[in-house]
UniProtKB/TrEMBL annotation:
UniProt xrefs under Gene3D superfamilies: Heterotetrameric sarcosine oxidase, Probable tRNA modification gtpase trme, domain 1
Protein name: Sarcosine oxidase subunit gamma
InterPro entries given in the database record: SoxG, TrmE/GcvT-like
Superkingdom, taxonomy of origin: Bacteria
Lineage, opening ranks: Bacteria, Bacillati, Actinomycetota, Actinomycetes, Kitasatosporales
A Pfam family matched in the record: SoxG
Amino acid sequence: MTVEPLTRRSPLAGFAQGFATLPDGLALREAPFLTQLTVRTEPQGAAAGRVAASLGVAWPTTPCTFTAGEAADVLWLGPDEWLVVAAPGEADHLTGALRAALGDGGGSVTDVSAQRTALDLSGPLTRDVLAHGCAVDLHPRINPEGTCVQTMLAQAGVVLLVRDSTATAVRLLVRSSFAAYVASWLLDASEEYSSAPH
């Protein structure tokens, strides 16, 4: 009996061709299989400081912000909840390191990598397209680089990260079960710009 190996397939594996047809001024790609770890701890406690030091990333304590580092990004999701996002395949290593940094009774680390996929949207049309289905004002004066908000996009819950100073590069973390819907919506919302002058 031959057993076929399991093949890992991203939620948006069939969308690459559609992403390639976007109008000038807009680029969309999936960043699949990212390591995503939920960390719960006291924000001002010693454990949070140890975790930040172990990652080499400043620990965000301001609501609706994230900090970017070489090894990982850390997203503020709630008063005592953060999401650590790193490259694929780092879950085991980072989980062990973060639990060791937290120490006994210092908090918890949960691997939620399979829960969401990431969509990176960039270009001068980014804010225009997102405005069709998102109530967050993405003008850089209102939500500058480093903003991280949990919001709705076309009635789907997403975590939205502003990744540049002009708010023309964002990352959307979306539940895997809603990824195809959100990707299809983004493609539809961008169609009106296909013949628009840029």
